[in-house]
Automatic annotation (TrEMBL):
Transmembrane segments: none annotated. It comes from the Eukaryota. Belongs to the small GTPase superfamily. RGK family. This is Uncharacterized protein. The chain holds residues 352 to 525 of 587 of the full protein.
Length: 174
């Protein structure tokens, strides 16, 4: 089954500790998206999730690492990059700035979905990166922007749907 379902690769890029693996775990355990259809987990691949959006099902396969692999071939680039930092860690924001600059050098920004994500907004009193700074960075690269909290599950389903929406938009523009 799933033969007519398109599969997209999503790379989650961010410094150590920003919450990449926690986020993928949360994606996997999502069983309902408000206002959208159902999500289904695939038992055979723990890093993959099926998302139903606008009556069409797609599979998202996640990989995560702390930086964009230099040896990554241009033709093997993932369909989407989730550029993740922690709002309580200024260094992680700097890492995201650096990695976005590298993506730009590869000319990947035009052809791929890019979403800048600030995580850990539940830690209000420790915040070190403002919402405005995050927005400005995303805007400079014409990327989508979202703030989330993986542990309190704030905006996580919205991010998952947002990733697929951006991928489909880019696909239409090709
Ligand atoms: P990774 O190195 O980017 O994969 O980060 P992890 O997923 O291992 O998360 C690092 C730590 O941050 C773990 O202790 C997580 O529980 C914690 N963490 C992840 N997301 C959040 C969040 O939204 N809020 C808080 N307070 N902690 C988080």
């Amino acid at each position: 089954h799933h033969s007519d379902v398109r599969t997209y690769r999503v790379a989650i890029i961010g410094a150590h500790g920003v919450g990449k693996s926690a986020m993928v775990g949360q994606f996997m355990s999502s069983d309902c998206i408000n206002a959208y259809d159902r999500i289904r987990n695939d038992d055979t691949d723990p890093e993959s999730v099926f998302v139903m959006l606008n009556g069409e099902e797609s599979e998202l396969v996640f990989t995560y690492c702390s930086n964009i692999k230099v040896e990554m071939n241009r033709n093997e680039l993932p369909d989407a990059f989730v550029m993740m930092y922690s709002v309580i860690d200024k260094n992680s924001f700097k890492t995201t700035e650096d990695e976005l600059a590298r993506l730009q050098n590869w000319d990947a920004l035009r052809s791929r979905a890019i979403i800048v994500v600030g995580n850990k907004i539940d830690l209000v009193r420790s915040r070190a990166v403002s919402t405005q700074d995050g927005k400005c960075l995303a805007c400079a690269y014409r990327a989508k922007f979202m703030e989330v909290s993986v542990v309190i599950n704030h905006n996580v389903d919205e991010l998952l749907v947002g990733i697929l929406t951006q991928i489909r938009l880019k696909e239409e523009l090709q």
